[in-house]
């Protein structure tokens, strides 16, 4: 719909993964997984509804279509969003409360090396007006927290079922390992979506 789409496309190209932009419900036909990029979550929410993608996509995600959200994408995957518009849409794919623009004005944008569960070695993570996870449900696996500074301990990467979300932008640092993990997991899940939001085995 909006935001940092090209950065994800570039990584998928490098990984040899076929991709397409989903702008209308018919673009959901045959996809095996979805990436929700960074950008502006309230704008995305409006466009998702306007273009009639919100309902079928929510249905597909409810049935386990693998999804990876970065930053604004993470916000859209939450069950609860703090500091947003009351009518903002969300997919409730991960049982978590996220706070938008959580890191405050002084640290609008920053970089830090993170330990991410499931990934070998440190990951350079860039945060741009990022959210954090303020509360995560029991079934949510916490993959990374901020290691130092005023936001130390805050949750910034999570997974629940087939939904993965990061508050940072692996697609902006030439980092491919999270996308690799996502694609591998999505292949193992083996689902294919249809334009009306139903999902069937590949
Ligand atoms: N602050 C944005 C929002 O609330 C997210 C920023 C980002 O995706 N880099 O949607």
From TrEMBL:
Ligand binding (L-glutamine): 39-41, 100, 128-129
Record EC number: 4.3.3.6, 3.5.1.2
Highest taxon listed in the record's lineage: Bacteria
Active-site residues annotated for this sequence: 71, 169, 171
Function comment: Catalyzes the hydrolysis of glutamine to glutamate and ammonia as part of the biosynthesis of pyridoxal 5'-phosphate. The resulting ammonia molecule is channeled to the active site of PdxS.
Family: Belongs to the glutaminase PdxT/SNO family.
Protein name from the UniProt record: Pyridoxal 5'-phosphate synthase subunit PdxT
Source species: Corynebacterium aquilae DSM 44791
Gene: pdxT
């Amino acid at each position: 719909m909006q935001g940092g789409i090209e950065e994800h496309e570039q990584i998928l190209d490098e990984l040899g993964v076929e991709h397409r932009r989903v702008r209308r419900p018919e673009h959901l036909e045959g996809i095996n997984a979805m990436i929700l990029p960074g950008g502006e979550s309230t704008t995305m929410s409006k466009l998702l509804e306007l273009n009639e993608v919100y309902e079928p996509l929510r249905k597909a995600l409810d049935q386990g279509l693998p999804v990876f959200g970065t930053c604004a994408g993470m916000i859209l995957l939450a069950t609860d969003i703090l500091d947003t518009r009351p009518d903002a849409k969300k997919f409730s794919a991960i049982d978590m409360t996220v706070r938008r623009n959580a890191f405050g004005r002084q640290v609008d944008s920053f970089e830090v090396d993170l330990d991410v569960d499931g990934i070998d070695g440190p990951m350079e993570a860039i945060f741009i007006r990022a959210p954090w996870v303020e509360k995560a449900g029991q079934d949510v696996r916490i993959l990374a927290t901020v290691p130092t500074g005023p936001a130390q301990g805050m949750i910034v990467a999570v997974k629940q079922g087939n939904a993965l979300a990061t508050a940072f932008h692996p697609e902006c640092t030439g980092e491919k390992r999270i996308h690799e993990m996502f694609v591998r997991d999505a292949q193992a899940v083996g689902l294919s979506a249809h334009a009306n939001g139903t999902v069937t085995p590949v």
